[in-house]
Description:
Blueprint: E1 3-4, E2 17-23, E3 27-34, E4 39-46, H1 49-59, E5 65-69
Parallel strand pairs: 2-5
Antiparallel strand pairs: 1-4, 2-3, 3-4
Amino acid sequence: MTTTVPVTENAAEKKPVTVGVDTHLDSHVAVAVDDLGRRLGEMHVPTNEAGYAKLFGWAEKHPPHVASGY
């Protein structure tokens, strides 16, 4: 099951984003936070090829990355 939380964007000002991933045997949970630690979005994916593809696609929607942890 894939769950996403919408991301709010401020088109006038792009702040650095950090994406962290909590890995588990059956699923991964990713969270994107801004430079102040505010949660921008969250995604839960299964640990399979389709889940990884969705996770990387979701993470790419949060530029500019300062760091990503997988």
